[in-house]
Each structure stands twice: as C-alpha cells, then as structure tokens.
Amino acid sequence: MPVDKNTIHSSDTIYDTFIVGAGISGIAAAIKLKKEGYHHFKIIEKAKRVGGTWRENTYPGCGCDVPSSLYSYSFAPSSKWSRLFALQPEILEYLEDVSDKFNITPLIEFENELEQAAWDDTRHLWVMDTSKGQYLARTVIFATGPITESQIPNLPGLETFKGETFHSARWNHDIDLTGKRVAVVGTGASAIQFIPQIQPKVKSLVVFQRTAPWVLPKPDLQLGTKGKMLMDKLPVIQSTWRKAVAGSLNVINFGLRNPSVLEPVSTAVKQLLKVQIKDKALREAVTPDFTLGCKRILFANNYYPALQASNTQLIPHGMTRIEGNTVISANGERHEVDVIIWGTGFNVSHPPIGRKVIDAKGQRIADLWKKTSPEAYLGATLRDVPNAFLVLGPNVLVYDSFIGLAETQLDYIIDGLKLIKSKSISKLTIKPEVLEAHNQKVQKHLKGTVFNAGGCRSYYLDENGRNFAAWPWSLATLKKRLSHFNMADYDVVIQSSNKAGKKAA
Ligand SMILES: Cc1cc2nc3c(=O)[nH]c(=O)nc-3n(C[C@H](O)[C@H](O)[C@H](O)COP(=O)(O)OP(=O)(O)OC[C@H]3O[C@@H](n4cnc5c(N)ncnc54)[C@H](O)[C@@H]3O)c2cc1C
C-alpha cells in the first residue's frame, strides 16, 4: 500500500539506528548490525533495488577493476564469478543475492528518499524527513555513496546540439549507436571500459582526451565451470587468492606513498606502449605526462586496440565548444557528430548527502562545504554532527577494494553504536581538536604522496587543490586506527531522566 508522504512515523517509534542507502555499504551495515543482535533499525533506499553504483552504471563493458575475489564481502565469498574481474550485471546479481541470503532485502524500504536529516539537540534525536514521511532515530549511518553525482561540463553551445547526449552513468540503452558518428568526452575509468565496446558498431568515433591516463594490461581471465567448481569445493583456494590479490595491492599502495618505487613499472609500461601502439603520434598522445598512480591506475587490454581502429580518432585535447552538430576541440578541430557520450566522471568533492544534513548548530553541511571539500575523522564522523556516521567519507581511500574499506569502517562504526547503547550515551560528537589534529596530520603526510606530488589533477583534489579523498598511510594503518573506537576522541552526553542530559567526565 502506498504510504502517504505526510505520514508521521515519529509518534510510533524511535529507531536505534537509521541506515540511508542500500548499496555495498548499506547492505553491509545492515548485515553487521543484525549479526551484533541489533534489530531495531531501519534502512531506506531511494531506488527500487539494491546495488547503488552497480545498479546505476550499466554502460557496456562496465565492471570492477579490482579482482572480484577482493571486490566482494569478506563474509560472503562467491564461487560464481565468471571472470577474475566481474562485469556489472554479475556484481549487481551478487549484491542482490547477498542481500537476500542475509535477509536484508525484506528490511529495506525501497523508493524512499531521505530529503533532510536534522539533529534535534533538545531531544538528542535525528529527525529524518523522507519522501514517505518522518522518522526519528537515535543514530544514523549515511551509506549514500562516494561516487554518485555525474559531472557534465557546461560547454558553450551545448544547448544548440541537435543529437543525443548522455553520461556514462546514465547510459541511454534506447539509443542504437550502430552506424552513428559518436564523440566521447573523457578517457577515465568508465570511458576506457565502454570505448572498446562501442567502437566496432559506430560509424566514427572521436575521443576527446584532456589527460592521457596510465592504462596497464588487465590480468583478466574467464573462469570456466571447472574453475568455479574448484572455488566452490575448496574455499581455501579462494581465500588464498583473495589474500594474494590484497598483498599485490599493498605493494602498489606502498609505491603510491613512495613514488620512486613505481619508476621501473612506469618505464616498463612505456616500453610496452611501443609494442601496443605502432603509430608514433598516437603513442605520444596517449603517453601520460604525470607520475603513475597520481590518478587512479586503469587496467584494460582492449582500449589501445580500439583507439587504433580505422573508425577511431583520438583528439589529445578537451572539447571546448559545440555549434549545432559540430563539436570543437581546444585546438580548433571540428567534427560533425550524432551523439555525445560524456565520460567525464563524477563530482566527488561535494557529496550530495551534504545538502541533506543539518548539524547540531542548525547549519546545512553543504553550506559549510561550499568553500572547501569535507573533512571527517577517520572518514566517518563530522564536526557538530552527533550520533551519525558516514561510510566511505573523506580521506580513507587506499588503492584497494572499496568493499573492504567500507567493511573496515563499519566495524569501527558498529563499535561506536555498541558503546552508545551500553553506556547510555544520548549524544556523541567528535572533539573538534581531535578532528583538527587528525586532518592536519593527514594533509601533512599527503604532501609527499603521488596523489599530491605526482603532477596531475585528479578527483582526489578539490577545486582548491586540497586532497579530500586519499589516506596517506598503509591499509594496515587504516585498519589499525579503525580497529578500536576510542571514546576519548569524542564528547559524550549520558542519557538521564533530565532531558538536558549530563556531560560525561
Ligand atoms: C563505474 C564505477 C566503477 C567502480 N569500480 C570500482 C572497483 O572496481 N573497485 C572499487 O573498489 N570501487 C569501485 N567503484 C567505487 C564504488 O562507488 C564503490 O566500490 C561502492 O560501490 C560504493 O558503495 P556504497 O554503498 O558506499 O555507495 P553507492 O554504491 O553509491 O550506494 C549508495 C546508495 O545510497 C542510495 N542513496 C543515496 N542518497 C540517498 C537518499 N538521499 N535517500 C535514500 N537513498 C539514497 C543510492 O540510491 C545508492 O543505492 C566504482 C565506482 C563506479 C562509479
């Protein structure tokens, strides 16, 4: 039965925890809460199905670039992957299976969007206004995603374009690209996956590249029935493989913090380019001019062949202007096209959740993030935002599986929730001095890493050049820091019959 938007649920119930979002992070949050014996929580999802990133991104060739053995939950290994690096339909199916298997799906209220979450500092409660009504909760987990808002450049003349345009994250499957003249803008992680898929069917393909990415061979492999059976019967193979993959990513991470370590790899990749691309001009155009790892390292075996196809032309410049059906690059080249596909990535420095949250001082978080990108404590807790936790928030990105990162953070968050409950805490807020000291240290240590010093402009940096995304130390250090919820980092108010509560010593 449809729920009236104005239904007030608050009079009925006060949830212990409210989870917003049912992507990888929200599903894991619900599973972990259940495992800890928490049942009085609510989970809402604005879409009709679980999956987040893997529900939204359906472009041809979409898949993970971390092997699936690691890009899967530690508590739910799968022997079904048909490749070492699974494609989007399989990842989505996996997330639906896990959500069903752990009985999370029935708990999710779908098509319910959080519109505003405001902290009520008198009652020490979150007031959650959603598209299906209002709810109250003592604590909140915002699992709303780090890479969600697609970014389209506002090019002069865009409104004069008569053809079709769409972003890779909103792929328009109704448009048949067969025989069409197509422009792709951008050569990032999504573009290098879909370009090889569309190139054989289009009439002509013009690829606008502002910055040449590092593209390494992808050690991908199809897994036959025997391989899958082995994985199923001998889980030790899978766990060993998972550990091996994690180990090799750790080596990459070490290199990102110590860029000189990756120099031999860069040299080898440049040598390989000579074999992969015969045409000298094209080879020069796709040779990166920044240190390996400064932007996310990309993996593909079919990207360079697609660029060398007779119907493809790489323009080593950005698209700057559009006049009717003519697209114009920074060097003045003009091309007639029927379709423009934006492979221009996402706005990650100002996550949309900031527009929905009102802090304890009555300020909208997005207003505070206007001048600078967000900062948090261990990517999870925000200044003046009590009893609330962000998953995959600022400065926890290490070169690894986001699923593993989310799980690690959730273990920390759930430890916090347990303490809130066991110690009858009504308000828990990160101490401003702890937050500041942490972020000063993070920013200081990021200076020497390849993300800041590698000579590129990546999405790790906001418009002021501040790195809001990366964790400057190892994954082991991140795990260690998140392994213990230190109450001394937080200001707490203990619940009392007196509404104002009492400040803990
Ligand atoms: C194309 C692409 C490929 C990627 N490949 C990899 C990879 O190979 N390896 C890797 O580690 N990472 C990869 N990532 C990063 C990826 O975002 C994370 O791995 C992961 O999917 C994040 O999961 P999440 O649950 O935190 O967020 P999301 O997947 O974004 O899920 C958030 C959920 O919250 C819901 N939501 C948001 N706002 C609201 C609201 N106001 N009310 C209700 N519901 C809301 C959304 O609908 C969504 O379902 C990739 C990202 C993209 C875009």
Automatic annotation (TrEMBL):
Pfam families: Pyr_redox_3. SUPFAM superfamilies: FAD/NAD(P)-binding domain. This is NAD(P)/FAD-dependent oxidoreductase. It comes from Limnobacter thiooxidans.
